[in-house]
Amino acid sequence: MMKDLMSQNFDFQDLATVTLTQTCSAVVTRLIAEKLSDPGSFTIPCTIGNFAFAKALCDLGASLNLMPLEIYKRLGIGRVRPTSMLLQLADRTIKRPSGILDDVLIQVGKFLFSTNFVILDCKVDEEIPIILGRPFLVTGRALIDCENGELKMRLNDEEITFNGSIRGAEQEAGHNTNHYCPRLGVAI
Fold first, then answer.
1. What pTM value is reported for the model?
2. Residue 137 DSSP one-character state
3. How far apart are CA 115 and CA 101, in angstroms?
4. Name one Pfam family in it (predicted).
5. CA-CA distance, 115 to 128, in Å (whole number)?
């Protein structure tokens, strides 16, 4: 009937007039997506040089890849180039990075990716020491399925899938998931 009302071929003379005495509302029936909880953050194992990281945080909210200065010193790779960049942390403090480390090779599964890191003198979270932001995720052609808790990295016609997230794997097991992770905003 609704479709007929909207079409121009409908003849209104055949309808009776109805007077409404109370407020009426129309309900449009359509499928509504089920509201789901926060899937948490994704972590992936990776290797830089001879140092294996069991968990590197993949953060779509980060516009850069972040490595604490202490981790950079442990790795002993490359030379940082100076930068005039300023970072605003979640607590609204502003910090100047030590520099930018270019063309760092990161092994993720069987894949090898090159990315840049901003080196910041900050507290190290030993469990999740580095943050891989959008620059790395786009390089790895990442596909994130939040509903199923999967992150896929692709290279050419091959892909590797990581299952689970911090919330998915650890909260269900009762582990503390309040990791130190500076939220960044970039100010130049």
1. 0.70
2. H
3. 9
4. Asp_protease_2
5. 18
